[in-house]
Description:
It is a single chain. The protein has helices at 6-17, 52-58, 132-135, 223-226, 247-261, 284-288, 316-327; strands at residues 62-63, 66-69, 77-86, 97-104, 113-117, 119-122, 143-151, 157-165, 168-174, 232-236, 266-270, 296-300, 306-311. It is α+β, with helices and mostly antiparallel strands. A five-stranded mixed beta sheet has the order 1-9-8-4-5, with no helix packed on it. A hairpin with a 7-residue loop joins strand 2 and strand 3. Helix 5 (247-261) runs parallel beside helix 7 (316-327). It is globular. The protein starts with 5 loop residues before the first helix and ends with a helix. Mean pLDDT is 90; it is low at 1-30.
Amino acid sequence: MPPVSRKPLAALAALIALALVAGCGGSDNGTGSRSRPAPAASEFPSATGKTLQQLVVSSHATQGPVASPAAANFHLGTNRFPFGVFTTGRDQITDAQVAIYAAPGRSVNGPAIGPFPARIEDLTTKPSFRAKTTADDPSAAQVAYVSDIPLDKPGPWAFAALIKNGSSYQYSLMPTPNPVGDYPMPQVGQQAPVVHTLTAGQVSDISQIDTRVPPDDMHSDDFANVVGKKPVVLLFATPALCQSRVCGPVTDEAEQVKQEFGDRVAFIHQEIYNNNNINDGPRPQMRAFNLSTEPWAYVIDKSGKVSTVLQGPFSVQELEAAVQKVAG
Length: 328
C-alpha cells in the first residue's frame, strides 16, 4: 500500500481545517448543544428534472457560504455525507439550514437528485473529557453537518449545497470527493481484519502510541486479542497531527462514550503515522484496514463483523447509538 494519501487530506485541510474556528458564527439551540435535526425537505426546491446548474438558477440562489465534504470515500448505496459550512473569511457557521444535491459526473450539468437536508451534529464533549489537544486548537471542529445521500452510479459525482437564508437561498458548489465505488476498507457486515494494536504495557512511553494530551484511556486491549470475543470500538485518529482537525474532538468523544460502555465494549485508539511522524507513512494497522484518510471509527460486534462505520467527524450521540447496537 502507498503512504497515507496527502491529496484528500490536503483538500480537507484547506477547506475545513482552516475554516472550523471554534465558536464562530453560531449558537447553541438553548439546550447547551449545537445539535439540530435536519430541516424538512419541503423547505428546499426539488431537483426533479433539473441539473445542478438549473437548480441554482431556478431557485434564484446567490453565491454564499462555503460547504465542503469532510469525508473522501463513498460507496454505491446510501452514504452518510458529513461536511462543514463556513464563511469566506473561514469562520465556521454552526447553525445553518442546508440541503445537499448531487449529480453523477464531474459537471454541474448532470441530472440532479435531492434535496437531502442536513442535521447538525455537535462535536463537543463534557468539559471533563475535553483534552488539552482539543482545547488549545483554535481550528478544532465544533459541529458537523450530515446528510444521508443515495448514490446509485459508480464514478465521479458533483455536489452542491443550498443554504436557506430566510425566504431565499444561497449556494455552494462543493469540492468533489473521490469517485463513488468499491473501496477496499471494511464495510458494514464484513469481518474486520485481525491486526495487533500496541497497548500501554508494551511501550516505554504512552506518547509513542497516543498524540493526545493528556493521553486517552483506550490502550488497554490488543485488538487481535479481543475482536471476535467482545464488541469493539476501533478509532483511527491522530489528535495532534490531524490534517482535517476533527481527530481531537472525536477522540474526546470516544473517551466520553467509553465511560458509559467500557465495561461491555473494548475501546481502542489507533494512531495514524509510524513514529507519530507524517513523513514516516501510515502504521500497519492503517494499511490492514486500507485507510488513506482520518479519522475513522469502526464499531464491531461480538462476532467480529463491522456493525457501523463512521468516516470523518461524528458526535457523541452518533457513536453512542452505534455502540448501543453491539453492546445490547
